[in-house]
Structure formats: C-alpha cells, structure tokens
Design a protein that fits this description.
235 residues, mainly alpha, Glycerol uptake facilitator protein, 67% helix
Length: 235
C-alpha cells in the first residue's frame, strides 16, 4: 500500500505542478513562464518526487515508465495493474484539483475546440502547431523511448544513483522543450488522461494515441537497454 500511495502522490504532484504551471502561469502577459517554464516545471516535479518517495515505490509516476521497467527486467508484471491504477487515479485527482482552483476565476472556461485545452494533448488540429497524427505518434514514441533509456541508465546498479533524480528530471525537461509545440507533450498516459477527461471533446477521442505511443516507446527502450546496453555481471 505504501508503494501505491507513493505512486499516487508522485503522479498527483507531476500533474498538479506541470499542468498547473501551463494552466495558471504560462500565458500571463509579460511575466508568464512560457514553454520553457512549463518544461522546467514538469522536470522539477519528477526530480523532487524522485527524492521524496522514489525510495518507496521506485518513482515511476507514469504508466509508460512502469511498462518500460518491466520490459527492462526491473519491475514485476504482477504489479503493473496496481501501479497504473494508482498513477492514473493520482493524475485524475490532481486534474480535478486544478479544475476546482481554476473555477475560482470568473473568467475561466475550457474551450475544447482549441489545441491545448486545459493542458490537454493532441495531434492534427489539436496539436499546438498542427502536427499530424503520424508525426505526433513518432514524437511520443521516440521521446518516451529515450526517457526510459535515461531512467534505466541512471538507475543502473553500476551508475551513480545519487544523481539519478537529477538526470531524470532534466531529461523530462528537455523532452518538454522539444515537444510542447508538437503534442503539448505527454510521454505519460496518466497525465494525458487527467486533462482529457476534464477537457472532454476531441482531446478525449485522441487519448488512445497518448497511451499507445508512450507505452510502445517505453517497452522498446526496456528491451533495447536490457539486450544491447546493460553491463553484464563478470565472474
């Protein structure tokens, strides 16, 4: 139960901090944090929670990460469903908290006919810059693949584990700097689910892609690291 609570709170913080920065702080004229600020916010959420609760649950905070660690031989298949449920519930609760806070502003409304509604992800007309389904899929697949390579490498028993959280947090920051203009950056199905469920409309119908591409990319990374990169034990 402690592991599941750690995943719940870690994913809550990721969504609340990352998506919250996009909803509340990114677009304020003259003083808004912009894309770079949102990218840094997502990285900081993972970095801080990796050190806060990573020692309890492993610090996944993302269904794709759980799948990738399973494929890499670092996580048992029997725990996949419960971890993913804890992550997704944490994300949805965070999204609901963001909605409640945003509703305190009389000017607040969600226009789900526009890209990025309530920090949701999208492709085609719902991509921030109109990127197609194919290019959005490739982006989410590749960036999640490299995110998992960073995680698997930084947490390898032969690596300097003291700095794993820094590498992973900065890796997620870089991922957002690349892909916010393309898909509004997912690489995390739970994060995508929380915002799509609140935005509804087209963001919800496109949600399938933000489960499929990250999970496939993560699984590919797990097998690549385990078979091609992982240092073998010597006798």
């Amino acid at each position: 139960m402690k592991k599941l609570l750690a995943e719940f709170f870690g994913t809550f913080w990721l969504v609340f901090g990352g998506c919250g920065s996009a909803i509340f702080a990114a677009g304020i004229p003259n003083v808004g944090i912009g894309f770079a600020g949102v990218a840094l916010a997502f990285g900081l959420t993972v970095l801080t929670m990796a050190y806060a609760v990573g020692h309890i649950s492993g610090g996944h905070f993302n269904p794709a990460v759980s799948f990738g660690l399973w494929a890499g031989g670092r996580f048992p298949a029997k725990d996949l469903v419960t971890y993913i449920l804890a992550q997704t519930i944490g994300a949805i609760v965070a999204g609901s908290a963001l909605y409640f806070i945003a509703s305190g502003n009389s000017d607040f409304f969600i226009d789900n006919t526009q890209a990025g509604a309530f920090a949701s992800n999208g492709y085609g007309a719902f991509s921030p810059n109109g990127y197609s389904l194919e290019t959005a899929f490739a982006t989410e697949f590749l960036l999640t693949l490299f995110f998992l390579l960073i995680i698997l490498g930084a947490t390898d028993k032969f690596a300097n584990g003291k700095f794993a959280g820094v590498a992973i947090g900065l890796g997620l920051t870089l991922i957002h700097l690349i892909s916010i203009p393309i898909t509004n950056t997912s690489v995390n199905p739970a994060r995508s689910t929380s915002q799509a469920l609140i935005a509804m409309g087209e963001p919800l119908t496109q949600l399938w892609m933000f489960w499929t591409a990250p999970i496939l990319g993560a699984i590919a990374a797990g097998f690549i690291y385990k078979t091609l990169l992982q240092k073998k034990e010597t006798a």
